[in-house]
User: Fold this.
Amino acid sequence: MRHNMLRLEQLARQVVAHWASNQLQVHVRALARHLEELDGQRRKFAGHIEMARLEFTSLGLEFDDNPLVSASDKPDAAFVNAWVWIDLGRE
Assistant:
């Protein structure tokens, strides 16, 4: 999962860095390919996403409508991105 977010950030930074150059099209295409890969991972691991929601929402984890998903070394397992609320406010 970290790799998907890191790669997405890297590609977005390349687009921004080359906004005014003749290389922009190359970087936009790379970003588009990565976004397609992310969508493919979501489709491939749709069952994992649903299972994560069912098992972990009650524990306070929150999931985006289309969370990032990353394959693991195990063929039937995947990482599903979730959010956990942390409130450091003192009352």
